Amino acid sequence: MCLALPAKILAIDETSDMATVALGDVKKDVSLALIEDAQVDDFVLIHVGYALNKISREEAERTLQIFAEAGLVEEPAR
Amino acid sequence: MKYIDEFRQRELAQKLANAINKAVEPERQYNLMEFCGGHTHAIFRYGVQDLMPPNVKFVHGPGCPVCVLPIGRIDNAIALLEEHDVILCTYGDMLRVPASGRKSLLKVKAAGGDVRMVYSTQDALKIAHDNPERQVVFFAIGFETTTPPTAVAIKQAQAQGLKNFSVFCNHVLTPAAIQNILESPEVRDMGTVSIDGFFGPSHVSSIIGSRPYEFFAEEFQRPVVIAGFEPLDVMQSALMLIRQLNEGRHEVENEYTRVVTRDGNAKAQALVAEVFELRRAFEWRGLGLVPYSALQIKQPFAEFDAEKRFDVPTIRASDVKGCECPSILRGVKKPTDCKLFGTVCTPENPMGSCMVSSEGACAAYWSYGRFRRPADAQPEPAARQDSAQESAA
Ligand code: SF4
Questions:
Q1: Which of B327, B328, B336 to mutate to test ligand 1, by most ligand atoms within 8 A of the CB atom?
Q2: In the Cβ-directed half-sphere of B228, how many Cα atoms lie within 13 Å?
Q3: How far is the CA of B358 from the centre of ligand 1 (A)?
Q4: Whose CA is nearest to atom 5 of ligand 1?
Q5: B329 CB under 6 A from ligand 1?
């Protein structure tokens, strides 16, 4: 029910505050009513037809880095 | 898919598993509750439990909105169809949940009730536009993740002057439920379930941020890690909880930094605050009446409140006899403790809500874990090997 999936914004329609996103190979129209300054090529988290939040590229990289170094470093406590 | 596949890589799962095995103190027991059904699903689907040392246990919590909705509220929705002849729009998960008198929304639909499955609140608004002569009710369920889309729909209905649209609001709040579990007699006094730390639901926190958990991490002295839903996220979060417990810390940490911040999504929060207010109490299946644990529609939007537009009584319906969902939702029992599990009760013919939603603990056990019962306590090395491969799929 709280399932949400990462999708890439392909196009934005500003009048309706909607975007076309790609979920893998599937295209979908979702509402942008819940987020601010979305841009084409941003990755967003999609849930029940709405973008909930943007996904941070930098943070995703950092997390993967932490996995790769598992057991070797302390992760930042925040 | 980007941001999914990378978080399921097999080699990294093995690394994390090794790190966890190194981190645990052998004489200590780690009972970690995943509040959210999405985590339960990921743990079973990818065999995460089998990669854990024997003294790290996942306790499944009540974080499945379908599972915690009491039967009385589904009876209410059925009454809206049968007595008020509305078009009822609902997310698909609700259709098969058993209600009183062996009914379900699906059965009522088969008998001619106008139930429409929608993917989004936008679909429900469209149905209202297309059927101006009918009353259209959106059966709103879900945690903080799912509430903002309902708020948007109510605001749009008001802006468009829609007269035939209303919302039957069943939105519930996560922190209140976690607090209730920690305050329950089973956890507090009897020691039958001990919960040492929590995986925080990260999609909920994408909206509310990590801050709301700070109070109870402090108050109840339990660590919380906001955990993403991919298997590697769950493993890393387990490692973070284990380290906190080893070091005697009880803080809120965030593993899902690619989406969650401390403050969350301010725009979505403002919309929710504009449209909804707290209910004094709301009944949860398994937890009973939980104070200030749910939302209702505020006065300025009262005309879109189905509970005000129609007569919606409080129904106290009892669960199916023998169904252990209430204890399972509190983490006191496991699905395999239920006599109906897998015999009378299966996903094709669910007796209780925990078997309906794929996020319910019973459904997760049935789909991914039912042959693993004997290994539950002490995973065999062979089983651990298999699931390491599975997690790479
Ligand atoms: S197996 Fe079925 S009857 Fe038993 S607790 Fe789960 S949902 Fe209820």
A1: B328
A2: 27
A3: 13
A4: B324
A5: no
Report CA(B352)–ligand 1 centroid distance (Å).
Answer: 5
The least confident of B193-197, B227-231, B306-310 is B193-197
Q: With contact defined as beta carbons under 8 Å apart, do A52 and A46 qualify? A: yes
Residue B392 CB neighbours (<10 A):
16
Query: Using CA atoms, how far apart are residues B17 and B157, in angstroms rounded to an integer?
Result: 50
- Mean pLDDT taken over chain B: 87
Q: Are B220 and B175 in contact (CB under 8 A)?
A: no
Distance B97 CA to ligand 1 centre (A): 12
Amino acid of residue B232: L
Q: What's the whole-number mean pLDDT along residues A10-34?
A: 93
**What letter represents residue B373's amino acid?**
R
Domain count for chain A? 1
**Domain assignment present for A78:** no
The residue-averaged pLDDT of B9-27 equals 90
Contacts of B77 (CB under 8 A, 6+ apart): B88, B90, B94, B105, B137, B139, B168
Size of interface A-B (CB pairs under 8 A): 149
| Residue B337 DSSP one-character state | G
Give chain B's domains with CATH numbers.
13-319 (3.40.50.11740), 325-392 (no CATH)
Model confidence at B184, pLDDT cuts 50, 70, 90, reads confident
> pTM for the full model?
0.87
Q: Does B65 touch chain A (CB under 8 A)?
A: yes
Helix or strand run (H / E) with residue B35: strand B30-36
Region B21-45: mean pLDDT is 90
Residue A33 lies in a domain: yes
Count CA atoms within 13 Å of residue B32 on its CB side. 35
Question: Does residue B391 have a pLDDT over 80?
Answer: no
ipTM of the complex: 0.85
User: How high is the pLDDT of residue B372?
Assistant: 56
Host domain of residue A38: 5-69
Q: What is the pLDDT of residue B381?
A: 40
Q: Are A6 and B1 in contact (CB under 8 A)?
A: yes
Average pLDDT over residues B339-364: 87
Contact check, Cβ <8 Å, B203/A45: yes
